Design the sequence.
């Protein structure tokens, strides 16, 4: 999971489009929720 966060941070810094950043943020928080539910 750690490499996913590193990737999304790198991706956010690469793209300045707000909708892309917010979409990635949404996906990131969704995956966090899924991981929390699995635990």
Sequence:
């Amino acid at each position: 999971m750690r490499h996913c966060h590193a990737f999304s941070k790198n991706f956010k810094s690469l793209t300045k489009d707000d909708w892309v950043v917010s979409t990635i943020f949404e996906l990131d928080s969704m995956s966090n929720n899924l991981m929390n539910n699995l635990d």
